[in-house]
Every structure is written in structure tokens, then in C-alpha cells.
Design a protein that fits this description.
Layout lengths: L6 H13 L6 E8 L2 H10 L6 E12 L5 E4 L4 E8 L11 H15 L5 E4 L3 E4 L2 E13 L2 E12 L18 H5 L5 H16 L5 H9 L7 E5 L5 E9 L5 E5 L4 E4 L3 E2 L11
Parallel strand pairs: 1-2
Antiparallel strand pairs: 2-3, 2-4, 4-8, 5-6, 6-7, 7-8, 9-10, 9-13, 10-11, 11-12
């Protein structure tokens, strides 16, 4: 009689083969999880080493910025969280760890012939539609940084896409952009490999240059919503050394933005008019 394995057993075997060459600190796979970030944070507080990885096939209580929900349907997407333990020198560059994950995914997508961009501060776009997002959470003990948890969700295949009425921003899957299904575990391994390489230069100017090179809507006028309800039409200029967004306002002044959200429809006309 042929032994029939569950999808989770097959996934675990595939992941073991793909992740072994990366020499991660450790990793765990969950067929179903509430939030991979919550699992990773609890693991970090119990001593998980640098580059420890939590993977979920299905995620029921994932979240993005401002505690917005992010549901991961089984067999269709990436829902992962990494425990990272920045060195003392890396601590000065914490905003770059969001871009570390985003750029890692973009490099992996490039291997599929797809050109991704980063919609500041934490979304990854394909064809100006959201394919993934990053959420970084920090564990401090007083002034001592104990760990970072870098969570990422990616719409790999079409089943991952939310219902249109649930979207705050147009969405796309990697498969939709490519025109054929994508192997999500291979995409995960390629993303992690890229992140490991990129981390070696995270403190250098070349990392910031890569971030700016992939900055979505650069030199375009967009609608930017600040924390609260205030909105303004601004021109995207670049990312600063501290990971902030530098923009030009409608009256021609330069403004450095610490927090905000680029609206659903970038303004195509000059100065948003």
C-alpha cells in the first residue's frame, strides 16, 4: 500500500532541503498559525538565535501596519517571520531592516523575470500593485535591543489574493505577474539567500543606493496620508540615510517624512493637480 503524505509533511521535507544550504540559526514550520510574528517574538524571548525562521502554510491572525489584518490562505502564499539579533553597529541602522526583507524579495522576484519596487515604507509592488508587505517589531530591554522580528507576507499564487472589496491598495500575485504558477518555497529560499547577502552591506551606502533604486513612484506626485487624517500631494524624492522619506511639497519646499502612507492612486499630473 502506498503511503500518502500530508501536504505539511511534504512541505517540511522540501523546506529542509532548500533551507539546509543557508545555515539559518534554526527554523520551524506550522501548518496553521495565528501570527508568525507572535510566534517568532515568543521564540526570540526564549533565546532563538540570529536568523531563526518561522514559516506558516496558513496564517489566521497575521497583521500589517496599524494592526491591519493579513490572512494567509493555505498553499498559496508566504507567511514568514525572522528573528534577527543586530550587532551593536547594526543597531544604528534599524530602519533598514524593513528594506532588507523587501529587497531580498525583490532580488528573488528578479530571478523570475519580475521587476519589483518598494512602496515606502514597507510594501513590495509588482506593476504598481501590492505583492507583499513587511512588518518589523522590536524587543527592547530598557535601552538594549534584544532582537528584531522581521515578518513578511507575499502573494505568491492567485489563491492568495484577497477579495477586491477587502483591499486598501490594488493587489497582485507573483504568478499573475509572471503568467504561471510560482514555487513558493523556492521563492522563500531565494529571498532568504538574498537577505543574507544584503545584510553584509546593510550599514554601507550601497544598501541605501539599492533601496532608492527600487523606490516606487520616485520623481512622481502622489497623495500621502500622514498619521491621522491629513493628506497632501507630494513628489517622492528619495530615502534618507535614516530610512525616512524625502518629498517635495506643492509649494516647492522639501519635507522629510517619518511616518505616512502613499495613497491608492498616485497623482499623475504635476504637483497633483
Amino acid at each position: 500500500m502506498k503511503l500518502i503524505r500530508s501536504r505539511s509533511e511534504n512541505d517540511t521535507e522540501i523546506l529542509a532541503d532548500l533551507l539546509a544550504p543557508l545555515n539559518l540559526g534554526s527554523w520551524q514550520y506550522h501548518p496553521v498559525a495565528g501570527s508568525t510574528n507572535d510566534l517568532a517574538m515568543a521564540w526570540a524571548q526564549k533565546g532563538a538565535p540570529d536568523w531563526s525562521l518561522v514559516i506558516a502554510d496558513e496564517q489566521t491572525a497575521g497583521r500589517g501596519r496599524y494592526d491591519r489584518g493579513w490572512v494567509t490562505k493555505p498553499g498559496s502564499a508566504l507567511a514568514i517571520s525572522l528573528v534577527l539579533r543586530p550587532s551593536t553597529s547594526e543597531t544604528a541602522y534599524l530602519p533598514r531592516f524593513t528594506a532588507l526583507a523587501a529587497l531580498g524579495l525583490i532580488w528573488a522576484l528578479a530571478g523570475l523575470g519580475l521587476e519589483g519596487q518598494i512602496k515606502w515604507p514597507n510594501d513590495i509592488l509588482l506593476a504598481e500593485k501590492k505583492v507583499g508587505g513587511v512588518l518589523v517589531e522590536v524587543d527592547w530591554q530598557g535601552e538594549l535591543l534584544r532582537s528584531l522580528v522581521v515578518g513578511m507576507g507575499v502573494n505568491v499564487n492567485d489563491e492568495a489574493l484577497p477579495d477586491p472589496e477587502d483591499l486598501r491598495y490594488p493587489a497582485i500575485s507573483a504568478a499573475q505577474a509572471r503568467g504561471e504558477r510560482v514555487d513558493r518555497w523556492a521563492l522563500l529560499a531565494d529571498t532568504l539567500k538574498a537577505m543574507i547577502e544584503l545584510r553584509t552591506v546593510i550599514q554601507k551606502s550601497v544598501f541605501l543606493e539599492a533601496w532608492n533604486h527600487r523606490l516606487a513612484f520616485r520623481d512622481q506626485w502622489v497623495q500621502l496620508t500622514f498619521p491621522g487624517t491629513k493628506t497632501a500631494n507630494v513628489k517622492i524624492l528619495n530615502i534618507t540615510n535614516k530610512g525616512q522619506l524625502e518629498v517635495e511639497t506643492a509649494d516647492g519646499n522639501a519635507l522629510t517624512v517619518v511616518a505616512g502612507e502613499i495613497g491608492m492612486s498616485p497623482q499623475k499630473d504635476e504637483r497633483g493637480s
